[in-house]
DNA sequence: GTAACCACTTACCTGGAAGTAACTATGCAT
DNA sequence: ATGCATAGTTACTTCCAGGTAAGTGGTTAC
């Protein structure tokens, strides 16, 4: 008699869809992962507020400020005031925030591939 | 003499931020990754439109229909009309769509962890 | 013939995401 | 005292993702 293979239903993954909702709620917007990836990619000299604003094409000071505040509240970035003149503020990823890098990278790679599939077609 | 270590700036990743924007534009909404994960987790019998609508808590027929259409246009899901009475329509992930599963899983895991860090605190 | 089921679609509406522009506060330079 | 730089904030506005509710078209069951 033929033993039925279990359907590959991955039941474990369904239980915690709330977790995916949480992630999407926090990170699903237009800017947050972009900011995280930017910070992860840049040398220290480019992590000032003004530099980020210039380098992240299209973002406004208002959005950058707002998003950074949320990221800070969620322990993803650290805000550090430097005693330069005029004062500058640098933003860096926390160790915890660095756990987002593989995810952002993966999404980026996927997007790169997707371009070829969809737009290159 | 001490040899200076290169800053870990990962310059390669900055070039293609457009790709991340693309991914976020397509997948950054409230429902798409949730739908993908749902389809990936469910046995065939639960992949009908009506079943999906019931199982994905909070989604409306309108949103489900709209999102599935976009996913189909992007070659992520396949729409199959079954000749049952009344006709049912099943949605499955394409091979290409399956490349999103690791990403959705990773985001889900991250969200699970994040709950503990932020809300459990 | 009417009621029920499936798979949507259409019309209408609203809250919040996001944009623009101007403004604040602080300190330095000339 | 005027101008410039950093790091934001505030006020005003627009737009659209997403919600609600009702309707459509096809088929079967009674």
UniProtKB/TrEMBL annotation, chains A, B:
Gene3D superfamilies from the UniProt entry: Winged helix-like DNA-binding domain superfamily/Winged helix DNA-binding domain
* Entry keywords, A to Z: DNA-binding, Transcription, Transcription regulation
Question: What range(s) does the HTH hxlR-type domain occupy?
Answer: 13-119
**Annotated protein name in UniProt:** Helix-turn-helix transcriptional regulator
């Amino acid at each position: 008699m033929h033993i039925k293979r279990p359907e590959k239903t991955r039941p474990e993954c369904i239980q915690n869809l709330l977790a995916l909702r949480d992630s999407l709620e926090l990170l699903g917007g237009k800017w947050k992962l972009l900011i995280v990836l930017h910070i992860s990619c840049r040398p220290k000299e480019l992590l000032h507020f003004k530099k980020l604003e210039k380098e992240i094409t299209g973002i406004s000071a208002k959005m950058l400020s707002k998003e950074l505040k949320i990221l800070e509240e969620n322990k993803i970035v650290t805000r550090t005031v430097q005693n330069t003149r005029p004062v500058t503020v640098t933003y860096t990823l926390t160790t915890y925030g660095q756990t987002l890098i593989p995810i952002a990278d993966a999404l980026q790679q996927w997007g790169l591939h997707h371009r070829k599939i969809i737009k290159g077609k």
